[in-house]
Amino acid sequence: MVNRFPLEENVLTGLRPTVQECEHVCGLAKRLLEAIARSGKAEGMVVGSIARRTWVRGDRDLDVFMLFDPSLSRDALQAEGLALARSIAAAFTDNFHEKYAEHPYINASIEDVDVDLVPCYKVDSATNIQSSVDRTPFHTRYITSRINGLIDDVLLLKQFTKAGGIYGSDQMTEGFSGYLCELLVLHYGGFTPLIKAAASWRPGIVIDIENHAAKKFDEPLVVIDPVDPKRNVAAAVSLDRMAGFVELARGYNEKPVTEFFLHPMERCILKKELASRIAQRRTFVFAVTFATPQYIPEIVVPQLKRSVSAIRELLERNGFAVHHASYDMQSEECMILLELLVGDLPALRRHLGPPLWNHTNADKFRKKHLAEHQSGPFIEDGRYVMEVPREYQTAKSLLSSDALLSVSLGKHIRQSLEQGWTLHEGQECWKEAFAPFIAEFFEQCSPLTRIQRDKE
After folding, report:
1. What is the tens place of the pLDDT at every residue in 172-218?
2. Residue 132 has what DSSP assignment?
3. Strand partners, 44
4. Same topology for domains 271-344+393-455 and 348-389, yes or no?
5. d(Cα 145, Cα 139) in Å, to the nearest integer?
6. Phi/psi class of residue 354: alpha, beta or left (left: φ > 0; alpha: ψ in -120 to 50)?
7. Hey, what CATH topology would domain 15-132 get?
């Protein structure tokens, strides 16, 4: 008998799928598998949380894999797999479209269920995969054979991480996947022992359920895939998300309350509130907006992250100290939001030359500036120094210039910026579609801090 807090039992009543929901989703899954079998082209298999009975009520994401003969070429798998997925989807709905991961698949909305029809190879071992999705059926078999008695614990952990804002292994979240949650529950034997143990986690912890790791990993949290000894299931978890989970575990151990399982209220900010916030902080706020590249988030988000770092370095290299920089991606438009401590600079800057003891270079430096008919150079601390005109006296002029395209941007971000961007300043950075992002930008707080504040 598992000992749970009464609040956890209450939470579970809202997390367990209803009988009607189970019958509806599983019935649809059965019909899809029958359709695949009738085609005679592939073997159908339900994977993911629905197959493992670890889905949270309302999360109707049905993953149906179509396993093809591994002798097929990648081109043939893509062509035949996509054709079969389209025909299956078309037999159930008109609402479907092609999506892309490592290779294309079909996403369909069927009877209020979000269905992915994914072609893959039917390989005999997860170590012999030909594409990353080939591993997923092995995950499903591994979890379903071991998860009995711990399903409620997985539901609690999923909801705990969702409420903490750290659920999801996508590039924007950098958090905990459903499979990772399942493995952690299996390893520790339940939600409660996991939370107690996680309070003492430190970066570099390694969890290897099968004791078969075949390589070392550098990520802060390492959970060796039980079906693939060369893979870290927690590779997507950033240091900050891991720290957030540790903080939440400590807070829950100290005082378990229902708020740890409640979805956070979406932050929002009005334009006039943004103006007031900027005035109080006396900082300089700019937003660069541009068209979202038409690629999947897994491709665009890392490029956005790299681009923000490059633009931040550009600003600081030109003397504009950056206090905070972040990004958001909507379906049509992206925003890079920057808060600077300095927005305007003097017309002059100091340019350091070589020490006088470096005879050759010192002479070149002096003669160069003599030829340019500029005042100086003068000597300070044993080296030549020049006062030269500053190329960009305002952050606005720098962010409006082509210098933005001179830095190390992501390929698709550069292509989008080359088509043009818009620079917004101060309260004009506010856009309704980005209001939650802007609010979070100015109201940064850790997961536990947010829970405690919301509870007050």
Report:
1. 999 999 999 999 999 999 999 999 999 999 999 999 999 999 999 99
2. G
3. 66
4. yes
5. 10
6. beta
7. Beta Polymerase; domain 2 (3.30.460)
> Looking at the domain 151-261, which fold is it?
Poly(a)-polymerase, middle domain (1.10.1410)
Question: Residue 343's closest CA among 281, 424, 397, 274?
Answer: 397
- Cα–Cα distance, 358 to 196 (Å, whole number): 62
Calpha distance 395→286 (Å, rounded): 9
- Distance between CA atoms of residues 278 and 292, nearest Å: 27
How many residues appear in the chain?
456
Task: Determine the pLDDT at residue 449.
Answer: 92
Q: Choose which CATH entry (3.40.50.300, 3.40.50.150, 2.30.110.10, 3.30.70.590) describes domain 271-344+393-455.
A: 3.30.70.590
- The separation between CA 308 and the C-alpha centre of its own chain, rounded to angstroms, equals 15
Does pLDDT of 315 surpass 80? yes
Which CATH architecture describes the domain 348-389?
2-Layer Sandwich (3.30)
Where exactly are the structural domains of the chain? Answer: 15-132, 151-261, 271-344+393-455, 348-389
Average pLDDT of 241-265?
Answer: 94
pLDDT at 373: 65
User: From the CB of residue 155, how many other CB atoms can be counted at a distance below 10 Å?
Assistant: 27
CA distance 219 to 196: 22
Which residues does 247 contact at the CB level (< 8 Å), separation at least 6? 446, 447, 448
Q: Is the distance from CB of 59 to CB of 85 less than 8 angstroms?
A: no
